[in-house]
């Protein structure tokens, strides 16, 4: 992935400092001159954290890094103590300038691009889709998260503070989440996380989101049907048939009343409404009584379940205590420390009662656990059924109360109008029929809800099936990708080659290097197969060896990334590769390492920009078609100026 630094400009209180970059940049000199601060400021512009040195605390205002990416030149400006950056770039459709988060996303910044952070912008301008990996490697339904440029930079920027203390978070002592992220980067670089795997993971993530949405919709529809007192399409059909029959009966009654003789004795509507209102009130009272009884039963079930769990807990504690104390032989009383009197062999040595230790038999404990679980499930099912009945009763009560309210409204109207018995009954029957027709119409509308619910369930079943098929396909594709060890073996061979060429003590070309997934933590064994002693980053006793070990692995990662054209930034910053090594006492390692770097820059890593920071300068050997831009830096020096040229401090 093309990633070339063009320049770094520091805005200071009294001046600006500009640093231009070339293919190889070598900063060297005395401590305190600001060599490491250059690398840290680059990392700061790319979203990293930065602890300011005393000089920068006094003078630093902002930093501007210019990068050349695949599709554009990007300028990143970050103010001191800011969480955001100002990014500017130019494309065919014109110049762009936007403020966006350096690391933590807060929503899409550039519309219809998916750009939320600086990392997204760099991938976007590089023409690379941000790689997605599973957040959890244990849960199959774990959502996919994006790897960021910050994750890739672990293998591009080896900072001085951690160059000899952490091996890219791959060691067992590293934080678990960081270790998984680092493994994902290696998988991504060597091709284990290929395009097909990425596509399937993205598809699986979308299916999970769709499944969650469908489940939420089904729950909402089910709750709505329960609230209106309808649980299924069959129940709606029964209500519809009952209402149709009631309407037919009402029509028959209306026709009968119209054909009846005028002088026939007719019940007044007021009396009928009062009777119906009383009946509805009695129905509400009965529902309340039944609901109270159900609630009492539920509380009894709940107490019973809690008692069972408590008794089970006491039994388990007692069994565990007996198992722990069963083999102890008490000579003195554990309470008063006096010598215990003799007891029969079958009795407890402390209390003298018959020993019941055999009650803690494992088979009996297991049977009890099964019985407790079964009884708990029965009570949970009973309480769930009671909750469902209470919900239905509550819906029925609301319906009856609404009917009662309508009856009382009709009663008030009849009392106010004082119509004749015949007219009042005729009007009442017409209104009842109209009410029944309105309810029937609403019932027909409600019929769509169970149908929609069934459609949602069918869609959910289809999504679950597709999700399972996609998960299986992903498993097969991932296994196929990891079965091809060509890239991994090449990485191991490159790593061993770097170690030998850097003249790391104790490592030869005949050694055997193992680099196994899923840990990708390198182990080096001697040429003798019987020698099982492994050299790892953790086991290396020398800080100098650890530094070279880590630097060589980073270089090997860039070699395999170049060979596979993997989307790893073509940038390698190594801050103090000789941190724990003397250039005079360990001349072979000093010369061997830098000679290897120059040789690789002249061949395999010709497109990779390299920045080296160290105490001493080693020039490229004669004959190599490579040159290094060096800058000698000393604090308080006018000849070999420090990072802040005018600053003279402690």
UniProtKB/TrEMBL annotation:
Transmembrane segments: none
InterPro entries reported in the protein's UniProt record: P-loop_NTPase (IPR027417), Rad50/SbcC_AAA (IPR038729)
UniProt domain Rad50/SbcC-type AAA: residue ranges: 17-130
UniProt record, GO biological process: double-strand break repair
Any one GO molecular-function label of the UniProt entry: ATP hydrolysis activity
Gene3D superfamilies membership: P-loop containing nucleotide triphosphate hydrolases (3.40.50.300)
Keywords: Coiled coil
Coiled coil: 390-417, 464-491
Protein name (database record): Rad50/SbcC-type AAA domain-containing protein
Organism ancestry: Bacteria, Pseudomonadati, Pseudomonadota, Alphaproteobacteria, Sphingomonadales
């Amino acid at each position: 992935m093309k990633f070339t630094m063009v320049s770094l400009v520091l805005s200071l209180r009294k001046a600006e400092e500009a640093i231009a970059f070339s293919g190889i940049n070598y900063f060297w000199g005395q401590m305190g001159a600001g060599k490491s601060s250059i690398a840290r400021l680059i990392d700061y512009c790319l979203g990293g954290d930065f602890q300011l040195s005393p000089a920068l605390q006094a003078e630093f205002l902002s930093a501007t890094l210019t990068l050349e990416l695949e599709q554009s030149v990007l300028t990143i400006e970050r103010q001191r103590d800011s969480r955001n950056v100002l990014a500017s770039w130019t494309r065919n459709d014109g110049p762009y300038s936007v403020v966006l988060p350096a690391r933590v996303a807060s929503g899409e910044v550039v519309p219809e691009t998916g750009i939320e952070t600086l990392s997204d912008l760099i991938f976007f301008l590089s023409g690379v889709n941000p790689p997605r990996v599973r957040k959890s490697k244990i849960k199959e339904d774990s959502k996919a998260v994006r790897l960021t440029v910050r994750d890739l930079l672990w293998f591009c920027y080896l900072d001085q503070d951690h160059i000899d203390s952490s091996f890219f978070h791959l060691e067992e002592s590293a934080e678990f989440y960081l270790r998984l992220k680092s493994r994902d980067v290696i998988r991504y670089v060597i091709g284990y996380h290929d395009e097909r795997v990425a596509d399937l993971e993205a598809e699986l993530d979308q299916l999970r989101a769709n499944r969650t949405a469908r489940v939420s919709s089904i729950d909402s529809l089910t709750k709505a049907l329960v609230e209106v007192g309808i649980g299924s399409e069959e129940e709606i059909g029964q209500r519809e048939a009952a209402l149709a029959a009631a309407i037919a009966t009402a029509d028959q009654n209306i026709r009968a009343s119209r054909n009846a003789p005028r002088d026939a004795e007719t019940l007044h509507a007021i009396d009928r409404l009062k009777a119906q209102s009383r009946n509805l009130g009695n129905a509400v009272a009965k529902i309340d009584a039944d609901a109270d009884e159900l609630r009492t039963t539920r509380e009894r079930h709940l107490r019973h379940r809690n008692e069972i769990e408590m008794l089970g807990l006491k039994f388990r504690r007692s069994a565990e205590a007996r198992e722990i104390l069963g083999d102890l032989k008490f000579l003195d009383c554990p309470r008063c420390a006096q010598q215990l009197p003799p007891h029969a062999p079958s009795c407890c040595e402390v209390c003298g009662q018959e020993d019941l230790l055999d009650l803690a038999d494992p088979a009996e404990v297991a049977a009890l656990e099964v019985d407790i679980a079964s009884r708990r499930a029965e009570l949970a099912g009973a309480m769930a059924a009671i909750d469902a009945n209470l919900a239905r009763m509550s819906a029925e009560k609301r319906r009856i109360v609404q009917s009662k309210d309508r009856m009382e409204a009709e009663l008030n109207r009849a009392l106010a109008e004082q119509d004749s018995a015949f007219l009042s009954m005729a009007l009442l029957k017409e209104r009842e029929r109209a009410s029944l027709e309105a309810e029937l119409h609403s019932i027909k509308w409600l019929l769509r809800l169970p149908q929609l619910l069934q459609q949602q369930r069918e869609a959910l079943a289809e999504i679950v099936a597709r999700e399972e098929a996609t998960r299986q396909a992903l498993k097969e594709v991932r296994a196929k990708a990891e079965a091809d060890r060509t890239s991994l073996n090449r990485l191991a061979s490159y790593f061993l080659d770097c170690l030998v060429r850097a003249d790391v003590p104790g490592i030869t070309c005949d050694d055997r290097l193992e680099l196994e997934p899923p840990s990708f933590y390198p182990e080096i064994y001697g040429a003798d197969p019987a020698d099982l002693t492994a050299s790892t980053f953790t086991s290396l006793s020398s800080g100098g060896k650890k530094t070279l070990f880590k630097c060589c692995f980073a270089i090997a990662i860039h070699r395999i990334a170049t060979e596979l054209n993997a989307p790893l930034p073509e940038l390698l910053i190594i801050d103090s590769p000789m941190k724990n090594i003397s250039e005079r006492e360990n001349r072979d390692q000093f010369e061997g390492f830098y000679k290897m770097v120059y040789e690789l820059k002249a061949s395999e890593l010709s497109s990779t920009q390299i920045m080296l920071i160290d105490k001493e300068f080693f020039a490229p050997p004669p004959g190599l078609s490579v040159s290094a831009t060096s800058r000698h830096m000393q604090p308080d020096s006018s000849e070999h100026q420090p990072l802040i040229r005018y600053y003279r401090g402690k």
